[in-house]
TrEMBL record:
Belongs to the snRNP Sm proteins family. SmF/LSm6 subfamily. Its main location: cytoplasm. The keyword Oxidoreductase does not apply. This is U6 snRNA-associated Sm-like protein LSm6. GO terms for cellular component: nucleolus; P-body; sno(s)RNA-containing ribonucleoprotein complex; spliceosomal complex; U4/U6 x U5 tri-snRNP complex; U6 snRNP. It is found in: Cytoplasm; Nucleus. Residues 1-11 have a biased composition (Polar residues). It comes from Malassezia brasiliensis.
């Protein structure tokens, strides 16, 4: 029986024991962002405000351009913005709204 090195025990593989019903897909964040360009996304800011709209483009700093954008605070629709630009340092995460 071989012993595991400290590096093997410190880093468990990501595909090990996913929760039931969880769909884990491999790929880089860059692949995900390319895949959702032109599709509906939700962008959560560090402040907790959500922007929902169509992702037009983004750059290496995570600056985001969106179309048909709406602003949501605490789950409530606050504004219809149309085109919007979000500075990347304010972004907490981006999630796809369509499959």
């Amino acid at each position: 029986m071989s012993e595991a090195s400290p590096a093997q025990t410190a880093h468990q593989p990501a595909e090990q024991a996913p929760d039931a019903g969880t769909d884990i897909k491999s790929g880089s964040p860059n692949d995900f962002l390319k895949g959702v360009t032109g599709k509906r996304v939700a962008v959560r800011l560090n402040s907790g405000i959500d922007y929902l709209g169509t992702l037009s483009c983004l750059d290496g700093y995570m600056n985001i351009a969106m179309e048909e954008t709406t602003e949501h605070v605490d789950g409530q629709l606050k504004n219809h913005l149309g085109d919007a630009f979000i500075r990347g340092n304010n972004v907490l995460y981006i999630t796809a709204l369509e499959g």
